[in-house]
């Protein structure tokens, strides 16, 4: 379903949600980290979703095993580098990888800025080796609270020229946008782009707050926007892209029926919809799988899928000349 004559792009992929199960096992054995299962067959059901979970927080717990084996910055580097290898194997032309340095650092008390540096180096080396263009988006893990997120932001700002944007992820329902206004003002002052997880675990008002309070230029998931016609018109008129991740939305129980995912209606309403993987290591998917799901299950036509591919170029945190280059390389 992906048209390989157009740029192939994933804009919403969590680097720390895309740790290979074999890598989790390797790092656990290398660093003496105890896991509930120390062989791949028994580990897979713990680190990957088999069907769906009860809610977003239950889904996020699956990511914990992966970050629990990040004993040092070398491990963080490996995970970042392997994300670029995965992007190459999937045939991606451009990828935006987002990560929470505190989440990666927390289990073994690593320095947030050092984790950020290791991730940057892993992605840069992966770009050189595999020829896939990448940009990094820092995440503030809202679940840890506003004060800890300020420390996380400082760790990211220590390497601000290597970071393209800032995101807010985690427990959307319990930690609303209002708590993070100052954080995102600092990010905008650093000339970073802004994307925010909203309308995934909370309602359409969360999407509005992400835009109006935090300055979101793109919305991660945005599923709940379907409930508010005025919001849909705002998103369409302002060309604020939606980073749709349908398999993830089903697995987190954000949508109960994958066939009823709102991205088809979003397209009909004129929104700039993009299609992405979210946490492919946890979901056990790749981008081609998501395009197949969008076509076969959600019912999006091939021509609309090609429009979604073009939307991803429009929505990318790249300059106009860089976007033109993506198209030129496909000719």
How are the SSEs placed, and which strands pair?
Layout: E1 9-14, H1 21-31, H2 40-47, H3 56-61, H4 64-68, H5 73-89, E2 94-99, H6 101-106, H7 112-130, E3 133-141, H8 146-157, E4 165-169, H9 181-189, E5 193-198, H10 204-212, E6 218-221, H11 229-237, E7 242-244, H12 246-251, H13 263-268, E8 273-275, H14 280-283, H15 287-296, H16 302-315, H17 320-328
Helix pairs in contact: 5-7, 7-8
What does this entry look like structurally?
The protein is an alpha/beta fold and 331 residues long. It has a single domain, classed as Alpha-Beta Barrel (TIM Barrel), CATH 3.20.20.140. It is 48% helix and 13% strand. It contains 17 helices and eight strands. It has an eight-stranded parallel β-sheet with strand order 1-2-3-4-5-6-7-8. Helix 5 packs parallel to helix 7 and helix 7 packs across helix 8. The longest helix has 19 residues. The two termini are 19 Å apart. The mean pLDDT is 96.
Q: The CATH topology, please?
A: TIM Barrel
Uncertain runs with pLDDT below 50, 5 residues or more?
A: none
Rounded to an integer in angstroms, the radius of gyration calculated over CA atoms is 18 Å
Strand percentage lies at 5-15%
- Described by its quaternary structure, the protein is single chain
Distance between the termini: 19 Å
Mean pLDDT: 96
- Give me the count of strands: 8
């Amino acid at each position: 379903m992906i048209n390989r004559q157009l740029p192939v792009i994933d804009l919403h992929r969590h680097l720390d949600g895309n740790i290979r199960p074999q890598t989790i096992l390797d790092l656990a054995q290398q660093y003496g980290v105890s896991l509930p299962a120390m062989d791949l067959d028994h580990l897979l059901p713990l680190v990957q979703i088999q069907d769906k979970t009860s809610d977003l927080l239950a889904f996020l717990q699956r990511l914990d095993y992966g970050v629990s084996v990040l004993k040092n910055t070398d491990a963080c580097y490996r995970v970042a580098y392997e994300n670029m290898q995965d992007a190459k194997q999937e045939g991606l032309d451009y990828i935006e990888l987002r990560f929470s340095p505190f989440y990666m650092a927390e289990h073994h008390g690593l320095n947030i800025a050092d984790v950020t540096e290791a991730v940057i180096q892993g992605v840069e080396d992966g770009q050189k080796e595999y020829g896939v263009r990448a940009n990094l988006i820092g995440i503030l893990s809202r679940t840890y609270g506003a004060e800890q997120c300020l420390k996380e932001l400082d760790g990211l700002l220590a390497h601000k020229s290597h970071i393209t944007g800032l995101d807010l992820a985690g427990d959307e329902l319990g930690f609303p946008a209002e708590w993070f206004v100052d954080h995102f003002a600092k990010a905008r002052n650093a000339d970073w782009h802004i994307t925010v997880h909203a309308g995934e675990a909370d309602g359409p008002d969360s999407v509005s707050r992400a835009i109006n309070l935090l300055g979101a230029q793109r919305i991660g998931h945005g599923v709940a926007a379907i409930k508010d016609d005025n919001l849909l018109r705002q998103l369409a008129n302002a060309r604020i892209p939606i980073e749709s991740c349908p398999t993830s939305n089903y697995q987190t129980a954000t949508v109960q029926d994958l066939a009823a995912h709102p991205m088809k209606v979003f397209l009909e309403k004129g929104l700039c919809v993009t299609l992405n993987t979210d946490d492919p290591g946890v979901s056990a998917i790749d981008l081609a799988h998501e395009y197949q799901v969008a076509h076969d299950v959600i019912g999006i036509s091939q021509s609309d899928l090609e429009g979604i591919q073009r939307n991803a170029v429009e929505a990318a945190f790249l300059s106009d000349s860089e976007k033109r280059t993506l198209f030129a390389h496909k000719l």
